[in-house]
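Hi R.,

Here's the chain you asked about this morning:
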Amino acid sequence: MKRSIYLIAAVIIMFASAFTVIKSQNWNVAEGYSIKFDGGDPSGEFSGLKGTISFDPADLAASKFDATIDVATINTGNGMKNTHAKSEKWFDADKYPVIKFTSTEITKTAAGYDAKGILEMHGVQKEVVMPFTFANNTFTSSFSINRLDYNINTAEPAHGSATFKVDISVPVTK
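And here is the predicted structure, written out as tokens:
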């Protein structure tokens, strides 16, 4: 009789474990994050980061980034340049108020990870790969982006650099 109870209990535990869902670790954006860009002239940073971060190095298939940046938070260190950057000529913050990234796949690399996904900026959606690392509860990424790919200030393609280096550092908490 005892053997039967143990056998039934073992079968129930195995059956229940087959339906157990393992979720990625959900993270919250902490204070002190930075989103900096440098195109020579202009350069600056954005604030207004919001989003959902689900990341588990042991379960990359279930990991996902879904983040937005408020375009109106651009800060070049110069009030006139900020106004210019928010205008129709550049980011057109009234028409396109957010920059959005949604990952479709996260993979391990020799240097860290790659987040492949859709970057939407200025009404244009393009697939990009953002390399990143995750250490000490901080995501860091550095990559380049061409503003002309997103129809940003195409009237002056030679104005400053068309390619901007972007550096992101996002501390997170559970």
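One quick note: DSSP finds two helices and ten strands in the chain.

Cheers,
M.
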